[in-house]
Amino acid sequence: MLAASGTATAQTEPFLSVTRGAGAESCPDAARLIERVEQLRGRPETGASGSYVVEFTREADGFRASIRSGSGARELRDRSRSCAGLEQATAVTLALLLDSDGQASSPQGPGVVARDAPPPAPPAPSPSASAERPLVARPAPAGAGGGEREAPTSERGATRLTLAAGAAGLFGVVRPFAPALSTELGIGGARFRAAIGALWLVPQTLELGPGELRETMFGGVVRACFAAAGVGVLRFDVCSGVHAGRLKAAASGFTRNDAVEKTWLAIPFELSLASLAGPLGFDVGAAALVPLRRNDFSVDGVGVAYRSPPVGALVSLRGVGSWVL
């Protein structure tokens, strides 16, 4: 524990002592604090009506100063990374306390008429602001009220409108792999989201005997997702819905060249990793596609162009723009 007087004038008892707990070594010692008090009061401190004890401690969210004197106790908190703001606030509080205690205990001088002294004014409130962040001043006993308030809730849980566009890959639908383009319009909140979109298959050419088949598809998708983990910057969703589209195959190079269209329906079971909290994000998805009906194209006398498996797959990567509603 450090103790010091602030002036060259001798004092029988030091009026201020300072202790600094672990992590609070950057806070001022007694000499430094007395110097700051004298600067604020504009005169050296030649004597005090009582003694003051200041204890600085380091907490998880900042610094705390406890001031104890004969007139009571004060507690100051500062959520800053340095002790500079708390040092200034403590010096101001001590200066106010010295003025208040000095007025209450000053002797009457010559020519002063004795009167009943009015009740001493309550100690001036401690400063509530520092150079870096606001300070929270409250009495030392717990449960006295006036606690700190939590920060406003984030917009991450707000309802958002999203627009996504990107590339996709179809596996086991018209051939082992076929590229596609995907777009979606969606709406959702912290846990749930839903979207409606479109999927366009890049035209594919399949060689078959003496000729070839050119396949195209344009379809739509409706899906709903639930956040299984994470609702902040990253979220992990499980999704399902319906894929529907029109598959078209046009033959060329055969004795008879026809064009045929078929309906394609599939149920997706998807896992998605998405970042949707900000104005720009992304959505990466991998889905197993269970077709309700397998539509393979064949040519009479030649055979099937591609025999699709019982389960296909869709992998997608989309950029996402979102707006809070």
TrEMBL record:
Residues 1-24, 101-156 are annotated as: Disordered. Residues 1-14 have a biased composition (Polar residues). Residues 127-142 have a biased composition (Low complexity). Residues 117-126 have a biased composition (Pro residues). This is Secreted protein. It comes from Sorangium atrum.
